Every structure is written in structure tokens, then in C-alpha cells.
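Appendix B, example 12.
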Amino acid sequence: MQLSHIFTRDTAAALPAMAGSVLLGALGGMLAGLIGAPLPMLLGSLITVAAMSIGGVRIMGRMPGVPVKTRIFFVPVIGVTIGGAFTPDILSEAADWWPSLLALLVYIPLAHLGGAMIYHRLGGLSPVTAYYAAVPGGLIEVIAMGEEAGADARSLVILQFMRLILCILLVPLGFMLFTGGAVGSAAGVAMAGADAPVGLLDAVILLGAGALGAIGGRRLGFPAWVITGPILVSGTAHLTGLTQAVPPGWLIGVTQLVMGVSLGSRFAGLNARAFGHAAALALANIAMTLTLALIAAVALQGAVGERIEAVILAFAPGGVAEMSLVAVSLQISVVYVTAHHVARILLSVLVAKTFAGWIGTETP
């Protein structure tokens, strides 16, 4: 990917608004931290920028947010961090994960069918729009498939992003209520080694893992390449003993902030009424899918040797980058969770394509 494709003239012109958005997002993150919210920089910035977007607030004449492509510089940080959790013990434990990986074959069609019924019967969406809006993974691929089939693009995009955002908001808050106290970064938990100094050689290896992993993952067509490529390269570097370092905690915090601002800006141009309708539908869908995730967790936690929180997080239908960041921040079996989310994306797209003929297409 050429740098000129990311840093365009329009991006340069938007820099003051971007800086203002990040600053306001950071203030929201600090406020979230003061009240003890989990993942404060992610959740606080997301809520702050989303509220500004819905309210029509402009910064230097522009809507708040950062360009989507800006995330490309930060998402690899999550992949490199997850790679730091690769150990010989993890590889042996992975052999016990097959029951929950197989369970995805049941979970995904159930979640997809249930979501489509909610969107069609309760939301009044057309069958085609409801079908693609309910796919529990593979956001970019699904949006492209839905638009080609004639789905309502605006409803499809809003509901798919609502799926990601509500998962990010509700899952950590649910864990906090379940445990009765602060969790993850709000409780002072950090990735092992995140506070250790990073030497020059370690920094070069980590930067190389992020860059080479992202470039290689894109060229090889990996799902969610911007995170899965760096995971594989970083994991290899850690398994072979090239480094034991991980990105520092402050960099993970900056990544949370950028992702929160980026997701919050997705609500730009959405009025309060449309937001309320989409939020109610997406909330009903998320309640259904998280209930299925809880059932899976209760049934599988003993079989896979993981905590119930890890299985819930592995089945929660958020984005792979976002849910992996939640796992990193909450220190919940990050490799196990990420492996399941990569599998969920692949299976979700496969199921959507397999049964697309049943739903047909829509003409304007």
C-alpha cells in the first residue's frame, strides 16, 4: 500500500479537525477512566464522538472523526500485542479448542437467522436488507454482498456498525457488573510486559512485525489482514525467541483512542430518531446473540479449559480487531479469543454466500 493512498490532500486539510476530534475523544476517555469504566479510552472516546456526530457538531467546519484508513497505522499494534502472548504452552492448549470452534458451525447460522427475523419482523426491513444486516461477521465483505443484492445500503451499514459498537460497549460493562467491580484496564490490568522498557532491537522487531505482517496479510488475502498478519509474524518472533517485548501500554491506549474516535464518527449524519430506531433493533439482535454466546460458554467452558468470560468473548459478534482489543485490555485468553473471531468471520461470510440464493435479490 502506498503512503500517498492513505495521506491524501483531503486528509491533510482535515488534520485540524482530526486533532480536535482526538483531543475531545481523549477528554471523554479520561472522564470514563475517572468513573471506573472498562476500556476507558475506547468507550469514552467512542461515546463522546458519537454524541457529537449525532448532534451535528462540527470541528473546523468538518464532522468529527478520523479517516478510516488512519486505523491502518494503529490496528497492527493489537496484532503485535496478541503475538506477544504466543508461547509453547498456547500451542499445546490450542489442541483443546476444537469443541468451541466446531460450535461456531451451529452458533453462526442461529445468530444469522435470529437476527434476520428481528430486523425483518420487528424492524420492517426487506428480507434482503434484513438478511445481510444480520450476518454476524465479515463487515466489509457483507456490505459489498448486500449492496450487490440490492439491500438498503444505509440501513445495512448502520446496523452492521451498531453490532460492533454495542458489543464493544456491552461486553466489558457486562463483565464489570458480573464481577461486581472494575475489570481490565480500569482495574489496573495490563498486558504482561506492557510496562517494561522496550530496547532499540525490540522496537525494530515489533515495528517490523506490524509492517511486514500487515503488508503480507493483505497480499495473501488473509481475513482481517491488518490484524491477523501482524499476529502471525509477531507470534513467530516471540515463539522463536527473537523478542519477548510487547508494545507499551501507552501505545495500546492510543490505539484504543483512535479506534474509539473512528467508530464514533460512523454516526455522522444520523439524526436522533433514526439512531434510536437502529439502536433498538441492534440491541434486540445483540441481546439474542449474546444469549447464544452465554449458552455456548456454559456448555463449553469445561471442554475447552477456558474461563466462561473467555468463551463469551470468543462468541460475541464484534469485529476481530475490536474484540481482540477487548481481550487484550481485559487480559482474557487473547489468542483463544482472536482465533475464534477469525474463524467467525470466515464462517459468517461462507454461510451468507451459501444461502444467499434462498433470499434472492432486490430491485430498486
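The two ends are 36 Å apart (CA to CA). The chain has one domain: 74-359.
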